[in-house]
Amino acid sequence: MTPMTPITPMTPNSSIDRIQDFPIHWQNPSYLSPSGICSFMRCPRHFCWSRGFGLRPRSIEGLEDPFPNIALVYGAAIHQGMPFARKGLLEEAMTAFKETWKDYDQAQDPKRNQLCAGLIFHEVMEVHQLSQFGIDVIPPPKSYGNREDLSADEFLFAVDLGFSRLFAGKIDAVGQGQGPDQGQDQPSIWAIEYKTASMMGSSFSSIWEGNPQVVGYSLALRIALGQCLGTVIEGIHVAKTLSDIVILPIYVSEEEQDTFRRQIGWIDQMISHYAEEENFPRQITGCGSYGMFGVQGWGLCPYRFLCFPKGGDDWRTNEDLFEVSRHDLFQDWTD
Ligand code: SF4
Question: Per-residue pLDDT for 61 more than 70?
């Protein structure tokens, strides 16, 4: 039997808990987005690292367990091309894609490259030409100008739910049309969200009911525009060969919205409480997929090097793995 290697416990000063003891500037988040809500629900300390300190993992070559940046960048590049592909503009879709993807084209990933992106956009064009779904994208306000961080059809929202932080975020597109329920008298508003995924089928279709983006976007549009039936998920299969596009309209009920609104209120209070105590607790069930009992897509937390420094080193030895990047939704935004 191979003897076990003992795990080195953390030294008492290897992790700092009080916000003011960190050398990086803490900034109290002024708004909550659907992804910020997910971050907090995963682990309050995750929210503190990502939203309070604005720490983003760097992709470091040679690191044994590199951060999965390439999938995120590919998803972002596909998002840039989608508004054009939906309108049948393949060339413009590829140009928008390449602008985001240009630094990653040498990656030689068999399912993330220009050829596969072209197949995806071609399929998107076909699906939308044949689709009887009948939802037209509403152009976003001209006041956004040409912001580089927004794709062509993206909408920004910030709504006051009566809490200390606004509920804010970005929606890939907003559409108007009869939707699948042809019995309606009036065309209805829908949020539209593009999702790239390596696996489709029932495992993809069954996960969107009650999703924070699906419910949150619909809630925001009901408040901002007076109506919204729900959110349409346009699923894009990231594959080596032929791509599937799945269009899923998800209706959102008043009850779901009320539940979500109450949850935002509770999170808002908890953030204020932890910020006052200067300590965001670590929720260790959020560190990896085992604690979540195999939840699909629940990888290792990128902040584990800060929370659990290797070999009991001081957490500062891993500071270089991160960069401070505070994403401000409200930058240059006038409505
Ligand atoms: S490593 Fe674990 S405790 Fe630390 S932020 Fe991530 S989920 Fe929270």
Answer: no
303 lines ligand 1 (CB under 6 A): yes
225-253, pLDDT tens digit by residue?
A: 999 999 999 998 888 877 788 889 999 99
Question: What is the distance in A from the centroid of ligand 1 to the CA of 160?
Answer: 30
pTM of this structure: 0.84
Contact (CB, 8 A) for 221 and 228: yes
Q: Please tell me the distance between residue 63's alpha carbon and the centre of ligand 1 in angstroms.
A: 19
Which domain range does residue 245 map to?
A: 69-140+148-262
Q: Where are the beta strands (DSSP E) in the chain?
A: 31-32, 55-57, 135-137, 155-159, 166-171, 173-177, 188-197, 230-237, 245-251, 322-324
pLDDT band at 131 (very low <50, low <70, confident <90, very high): low
Q: Are residues 199 and 301 in the same domain?
A: no
Using CA positions, which residue lies closest to atom 1 of ligand 1? Answer: 304
Q: Is residue 279 part of a domain?
A: no
122 found inside a domain: yes
